[in-house]
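Checklist before submission:
- one chain only
- standard amino acids only
- sequence pasted in full

Submission:
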Amino acid sequence: MTVAELDHWRAVALAPPFALGGPLGSGVLRASADDFVVDEQLGFEADGGAAHVLLHVEKRERDTLAVAGELARLAGVAARDVGFAGLKDRVAVARQWFTVPSPRTALEWATLEGRGFRVLAAAAHSRKLRRGALTGNAFTLVLREVTASPAALDARLAMVATAGVPNYFGPQRFGRDGSNLDAIAWWLAEGRLPRGREGRAFVLSAARSLLFNAVLAERVVDGSWNRLLAGECVNLAGRNSWFVADALDAALEDRLERHDIHPTGPLAGRGRGPGGDAAALEGRVLASFGALCERLEEQGLEAARRALRLVPSGLQVTWDGATLTLRFGLPSGAYATALIREVLATAQPLLESDDA
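Returned file contents:
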């Protein structure tokens, strides 16, 4: 791999093009963990089954895997048997859900606390919680020392609420200082993935995310990230299902305008993709990533799709001098930082290594 190729990877992964004109000023995000609060929305309740315990956990400045490991230790089970729906940022206050196999010795889960976490509620549940098994996340973000005009920011945020932003994978997905990109390059050169399950998963997910961001970046540049192309794989908003739109019509355009559907980009693997103009565009972009696409197919990954457009729900804006508080909801798998970057450039003094 050449230096130029790796530089291109870093650009599309860590600094992809803006869609709304770039940040209007700067601000400080995560001056403390309390400035980044996320509440996981499951969309279902515990079913009363005896096999597992469904735990609602608040964690602070701990990563999800560390908390899962601590819960496993307390329950006397293997870490792999603890379920959770998503990885959450370490430098944050996150309220998320876990499942733990019911221990032989009863535990007072509802009063349990550990380093950087506490259990808020516990209930009997029949199944292990799987990755992605949530409807979305609710965010409360505080940005301090904001330099941009409140009027200009309010106007930009109103645009974000109606037009959305590109649904990029955030820099968290690519590791500290883009370290996961180096791991992908090593995989291509040496043909070996990390030994551990989580290490392999991070490399594979980062590789698919890199390809997605590359396609989305091209569609931001040509202005098609928020419109449908002929042959588009169309996502049904809020769901993991999609269909191919061989021909475009007024009904589809109306649904796109109402945010009922979104254009999509690839999560590379084996399987059907788009046709027509959408396939031609993706083919042009992914041609320079041919070896990586082949490696992903060799891993037996099934192709999937991800919405190119991200539209927040219930966006609320509050000002207190130069401090801006934002409250909004995002669907599962979306990054709050993808929204913030279209508004403000942010310094994050406490951000060292986030979950991917």
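Reviewer check: Residues 195 and 201 are 10 Å apart (CA to CA).
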